[in-house]
Design a protein that fits this description.
The chain is mainly beta. The protein is built from 1 helix and 6 strands. A 3-stranded mixed β-sheet has the order 1-3-2, with helices on one face. Strand 4 and strand 5 form a beta hairpin. The protein is flat and about 40 Å long.
Length: 88
C-alpha cells in the first residue's frame, strides 16, 4: 500500500485502480484516489480470513467521479457511495 502513491505519481493519474488483495477499498490520499474493487466472487485471500464478494462501479462526468461499492453479505447487498472532485 505504501508504494501505491509512488506508482500513482509515476503514472501521473488522479485515480489509480489496483487489485490482487481481493479486499475492496476506496481511499483518498494527498488529493488522489486509490480504488481496489475487491473480488466479485469473494475469492480466497491470504490477507484476510473472511472475503466479501464485491465490485465497484465508477460514474465519471467531467472532473467529478462517483464510486458505488457493492458488497454481498449473506443474502443482502450493501451499497456505499463516495465522490471525488478534481480541482479545475
Amino acid at each position: 500500500p505504501h508504494s501505491l502513491p509512488m506508482f500513482q505519481r509515476r503514472l501521473d493519474v488522479d485515480i489509480l485502480v489496483t487489485g490482487h488483495t481481493h479486499k475492496n477499498q476506496v481511499n483518498e490520499f494527498d488529493g488522489k484516489w486509490f480504488i481496489n474493487p475487491g473480488s466479485i466472487t469473494g475469492a480466497y485471500s491470504s490477507l484476510q480470513a473472511d472475503s466479501v464478494p464485491s465490485f465497484v462501479l465508477l460514474a465519471i462526468q467531467g472532473s467529478k467521479v462517483v464510486t458505488y461499492v457493492y458488497e454481498l453479505h449473506g443474502d443482502n447487498v450493501e451499497v456505499s457511495k463516495s465522490e471525488f472532485q478534481k480541482p479545475v
